Amino acid sequence: MSISVIRRGLELLSNDIKDGGKSQKKSCQKTTLMDQISSNKQGVRKQIRQLQAHSQARKSKVTVKNKNVKNALEEYRKKQKKSQLSANLEYFLGTSYVTQEHHTKKIQQQNTGRLSRHQPEQPVRKPAQEKSIFTEEEFQKFQKEYFANL
């Protein structure tokens, strides 16, 4: 070993001997709960509870060591339900069964809302022309008879 390394080691050792090892003991030694409480007689129990709560909070602190921090968007997308629309469309378009029209109209009618604004407009029916019991010839005959007497 070189002389400079030995001198450096002796200097460090002499510093420890002068301090008497007090600096290490203070840093390593934890203060007890009773040393932290004030000498006042009032509020001792409250101080004890507070100090115990602080010490427990420090112990239960969770660290992020060895934990992968993930992107929030990726987590959100994973938790979202995936759309099954394309799979459902493939299934329904792949079947050869065709429902009858009156069944589909029934289903559509049941799914419409109950408010009047949600109801589909009913097709306007043209009033059917009334058919007469009498024929055109009978009308002509009646007209001649009626106006001839006037």
TrEMBL record:
Its main location: nucleus. One of its GO terms (molecular function) is enzyme binding. Residues 118-129 have a biased composition (Basic and acidic residues). Pfam families: AROS. Residues 102-132 are annotated as: Disordered. Keywords: Coiled coil, Nucleus. Residues 34-79 form a coiled coil. It is found in: Nucleus, Nucleolus. InterPro entries: AROS. Transmembrane segments: none annotated. The keyword Metal-binding does not apply. PANTHER family: ACTIVE REGULATOR OF SIRT1 (PTHR31454:SF2). Belongs to the AROS family. This is Active regulator of SIRT1.
